[in-house]
Structure formats: structure tokens, C-alpha cells
UniProtKB/TrEMBL annotation:
Cellular component terms per the entry's GO annotation: extracellular space; lysosome
Native organism taxonomy: Eukaryota, Metazoa, Chordata, Craniata, Vertebrata
A molecular-function term among this protein's GO annotations: beta-glucuronidase activity
Any matching Pfam family: Glyco_hydro_2_N
A Gene Ontology biological process term: carbohydrate metabolic process
Organism domain of life: Eukaryota
Protein name: Glucuronidase beta
Glycoside hydrolase family 2 catalytic domain span: 183-484
Sequence ranges assigned to domain Glycosyl hydrolases family 2 sugar binding in this UniProt record: 39-158
Subcellular localization, as worded in the UniProt entry: Lysosome
Signal peptide bounds: 1-22
Length: 505
């Protein structure tokens, strides 16, 4: 007689954010249906950071062979969360290296006994290299954070009975909410359902006090209520793909998304190698596979602020963008640039120019009077060179909430407002011509590495990290609602609380 395991234990490499056991996988969000059950593994996990000198003690001592508590002390770690933000330990706050997560799971008896049941372990996201052991067996490896990966673990949790011949085909089905819309780009317009669309929105980060990047429903709903309050109709998932639940909300609320690949910091010549191209295209495949069914996603962004002025960047972006277009011919593709229009080698391959600029912030400090001229010149140069629609994909000013200074000085709430006002005047001169969007940097203050440029993180939010408005939020709110009422999509956020009313139906 063979006994089946009632308990499976799972040891993970780096940070795990969320996972689910499902009867069927297929990389898409594992929805429940009459043929599918889900078991969430969110909750408290055992955790250990490998502080050893070479940071490989865990592999040398094979911590994955036994329950983690048997190879040394463990901490309790909530999943999803960022381990750095949870404890009081300075070393862990700054730790980069292997960390180990483990959890014992009791499986429903049917999953382990009924051989027609397929058991799939799916990790929503683990940053940035993950190895997964199930019952001590190396089951799954994945490189690159933010995107899901999965493995069929049926053979690891089910008993091999001699009656295997009785296993027949299983029918599996589930339904997806559907939204139908077209997206197209002309020389000067971004069209949704054939109508010109103007992006008036934000850049975000998955970030909040204590939970760090960990997914959280109350935070997500609060953020969507703030987007509604603001009159925003779009955001960019800067600088990585966000949790799938975020895109589900965008579909429901009619928020348009520029979905970005986690390619930030491609700044050295060696980053534009064949190895990088191969990895980059693989990540784009994972991103498109995961998010292709979301009507909210209207454009792919393959990178943020690469050194696209380098000679080698031309071939590199040609390859990555061509590959992405082949994966999904229905959506435009871009990357976000901060290079000079005359030097950018990747721009010839994008459908929309997305350009970041920080006039009167990272240079010309305090010279707000220059912004309109600088912005106008920026737009004209890009347009006359490429004849493509342009989105101002980032602009903003660091602002410490409650700091006041008039006449405005940097870091005060007055300076952020005045800077935005100047940008808006510049944007309004080109809006309706070929500038098709503006995305403020940033929706909310967020945590960063420490540096002399950052006061407890990046403070360019129009909301604080706790989601309270700074003065600039009211300015932006007035502008966004005015634009919303002028354009043909006033209902985007305002009225569409469900898919039936969104612009995607
Ligand atoms: C940028 C980057 C973003 C930074 C921002 C800033 O250009 O894309 O990651 O956070 O500037 O505030 O410096």
C-alpha cells in the first residue's frame, strides 16, 4: 500500500510575492471555475536571509532537503511583502542576495488521491532569480522578477497507484471577462476605437509603508479611488509589470495602461549584448503572454531610460521591438527615453515617442520661466525628426509635504505646483496637435535607495506615501477633469465602475 503525502513543503529562493495552487495553469491568472480549485499560499512563511560570506551556505548545506527550521533560526515573513521593510534589522533592510522562504501546505485529499487532478504550483512573482523545491525536489527556476512562472507538481504530491490506466481525459474550462476595443497610431494621434485618445494620467509604483511592494487589496482600491478623484484616465506601470489584480481593476474601471517590461538601467555598452537581447525578448514573451487579454493594456513599453544614444542600442531595440510586435501585432510598442532626439538610436523603431524630462529640477534649478521654451523645443525636435505622436512620459518635482515657501523654492509645495503649471502651459500648446499624453512623475511618494538626492525616498508624488494629497494634487485634479470633460472619453474613470461601461466594451 502506498501512502500519499498530505503535506508538501516548498522552499523558495528570493522574495515570493504571491502564489496559488491550481488544478490547471497555463500562465494566465488562475481563475476558479467548476473544473478548477485554487489554494492561496499567501500568509506567514518561514524565512532566512543567507548572510554567509559567499551567500551560498544554503546551497552548500542543502537547506531545501529538510524543513528550514532544522538548519538554523528562521523569521516569520508575510507573503506578499518586501522582506526589507518588515524588520528592524539594518542588515536585512539593505540585504541583496539569496533569501529562503518555506511553507508547509496541506492539500485537499482529492488533489493528492485523484490522479486525474493536475496540481500546478504558480508563483505570481519572485525577485529576481528564484529556485523552487517541492518536497526537496528542484522543481522550477525563473530569472527576472515581476512575472509569473509555474510547474506541474502532480507527480510530487500524488501517489503513483497501479491503477493509472484508469486516468482519462479531463475537461477544464474557465471564463475570462472580455473587453473589445481597437488601438491604432497615426503620425500624430493615438486612437482607441478610432477616436483620438489623450493620456492624462500618472506613473505609479507598487509601494506603500511597511508592505513595500507587497500586493494589497485595500491599497489598490484606495489608489483607484484616488485616480477617480483625480480624473486620471491612464497610467504607465513604471518600471515593471504590476500585479495581475491591478490590470483586472484597470479593465473594470476603464483605466488605460502602458505596460512596461522590467528593463531599467540599461546604461552601459555591455548591456546591449546578444545575451541581453535574448533575455529581454524572453521577458517580453512572458509579459505579453500574461497580459495580452487585458483590454486596458494599449501599448507595450520595452524599457525605461536606456542609454539609447549608444550605437549598439539601435540593433538592440530593433530586435526587441520587432519581436514584441510579432508576439502582439495588435498593440503599439515603445520605450521610454531620456536621450536627446538627435542621438536616440532606438526611436526609429517605436510607434509613439515617450519622453521624460525634468526641466527646472535636475538642471536650471529654480528657473521655471525656461520650462515652456525648453518643452516646446523638445516636442518640436522630436516631432520634426520622427513624425510620431509624443507622450510626456515623466515630469515632476521633489516636494516635502507641508514645506511652504513663496516665492517658490525647490522642495516646497509651491514649487511643485508652479513647475506643473509651466509644464501644463507648454503641453497645452501641443495638445491636440501631436502630443497625445502627459503622465506625472509620480502618483505617490515612494521608497528608494538612500542618496543625497532623496529625503527618505523619492518625494515627487502628488500624494504622500500614505496617499494624502499635496497642493499639486488639487491643481492636477482640476486640469484632468477639464481635459476629461473636453475629450471624448469623459466617462473613462468617472462612470465605468464595471467592464460594461468602460471604453473597452
Ligand atoms: C526618472 C526615472 C525614475 C526616477 C525619476 C526621478 O527619470 O525614470 O525612475 O524615479 O526620474 O525622480 O529621478
Amino acid at each position: 500500500m502506498v501512502r500519499w503525502p498530505a503535506v508538501a513543503w516548498v522552499t523558495l529562493g528570493p522574495l515570493l510575492w504571491g502564489c496559488a495552487l491550481a488544478l490547471q495553469g497555463g500562465m494566465l491568472y488562475p481563475r476558479e471555475s467548476p473544473s478548477r480549485e485554487r489554494k492561496s499560499l499567501d500568509g506567514l512563511w518561514s524565512f532566512r536571509a543567507d548572510f554567509s560570506d559567499n551567500r551560498r551556505r544554503g546551497f552548500e548545506e542543502q537547506w531545501y532537503r529538510r524543513p528550514l527550521r532544522e538548519s538554523g533560526p528562521t523569521l516569520d515573513m508575510p507573503v506578499p511583502s518586501s522582506f526589507n521593510d518588515i524588520g528592524q534589522d539594518w542588515q536585512l533592510r539593505h540585504f541583496v542576495g539569496w533569501v529562503w522562504y518555506e511553507r508547509e501546505v496541506t492539500l485537499p485529499e482529492r488533489w493528492t488521491q485523484d490522479l486525474r487532478t493536475r496540481v500546478v504550483l504558480r508563483i505570481g512573482s519572485a525577485h529576481s532569480y528564484a529556485i523552487v523545491w517541492v518536497n526537496g525536489v528542484n522543481t522550477l527556476e525563473h530569472e527576472g522578477g515581476y512575472l509569473p512562472f509555474e510547474a506541474d507538481i502532480s507527480s510530487l504530491v500524488q501517489v503513483r497507484l497501479t491503477a493509472q490506466t484508469s486516468v482519462g481525459p479531463v475537461s477544464d474550462f474557465y471564463t475570462l471577462p472580455v473587453g473589445i476595443r481597437t488601438v491604432a497610431v497615426t503620425e500624430s494621434q493615438f486612437l482607441i476605437n478610432g477616436k483620438p485618445f489623450y493620456f492624462h494620467g500618472v506613473n505609479k509604483h507598487e509601494d506603500a509603508d511597511i508592505r513595500g511592494k507587497g500586493f494589497d487589496w485595500p491599497l489598490l482600491v484606495k489608489d483607484f479611488n484616488l485616480l477617480l478623484w483625480l480624473g486620471a484616465n491612464a497610467f504607465r506601470t513604471s518600471h515593471y509589470p504590476y500585479a495581475e489584480e491591478v490590470l483586472q481593476m484597470c479593465d473594470r474601471y476603464g483605466i488605460v495602461v502602458i505596460d512596461e517590461c522590467p528593463a531599467v538601467g540599461l546604461v552601459l555598452p555591455q548591456h546591449f549584448s546578444n545575451t541581453s537581447v535574448n533575455h529581454h525578448t524572453r521577458v517580453m514573451e512572458e509579459l505579453v503572454r500574461r497580459d495580452k487579454n487585458h483590454p486596458a493594456v494599449v501599448m507595450w513599453s520595452v524599457a525605461n531610460e536606456p542609454a539609447s544614444y549608444l550605437e549598439s542600442a539601435g540593433y538592440y531595440f530593433k530586435m526587441v521591438i520587432t519581436h514584441t510586435k510579432a508576439l502582439d501585432p495588435s498593440r503599439p510598442v515603445t520605450f521610454v527615453t531620456n536621450s536627446n532626439y538627435a542621438a536616440d538610436k532606438g526611436a526609429p523603431y517605436v510607434d509613439v515617442i515617450c519622453v521624460n524630462s525634468y526641466y527646472s529640477w535636475y538642471h536650471d534649478y529654480g528657473h521655471l520661466e525656461l520650462i515652456q521654451l525648453q518643452l516646446g523645443t523638445q516636442f518640436e525636435n522630436w516631432f520634426k525628426t520622427y513624425h510620431k505622436p509624443i507622450i510626456q512620459s515623466e515630469y515632476g518635482a521633489e516636494t516635502i509635504v507641508g514645506l511652504h515657501q513663496d516665492p517658490p523654492l525647490m522642495f516646497s509645495e509651491e514649487y511643485q505646483k508652479a513647475l506643473l503649471e509651466q509644464y501644463h502651459l507648454g503641453l497645452d500648446q501641443k495638445r491636440g496637435k501631436y502630443v497625445v499624453g502627459e503622465l506625472i512623475w509620480n502618483f505617490a511618494d515612494f521608497m528608494t535607495n538612500q542618496s543625497p538626492q532623496r529625503v527618505l525616498g523619492n518625494k515627487k508624488g502628488i500624494f504622500t506615501r500614505q496617499r494624502q494629497p499635496k497642493a499639486a494634487a488639487f491643481l492636477l485634479r482640476e486640469r484632468y477633469w477639464k481635459i476629461a470633460n473636453e475629450t471624448r472619453y469623459p466617462h473613462s474613470v468617472a462612470k465605468s465602475q464595471c467592464l460594461e461601461n468602460s471604453p473597452f466594451t
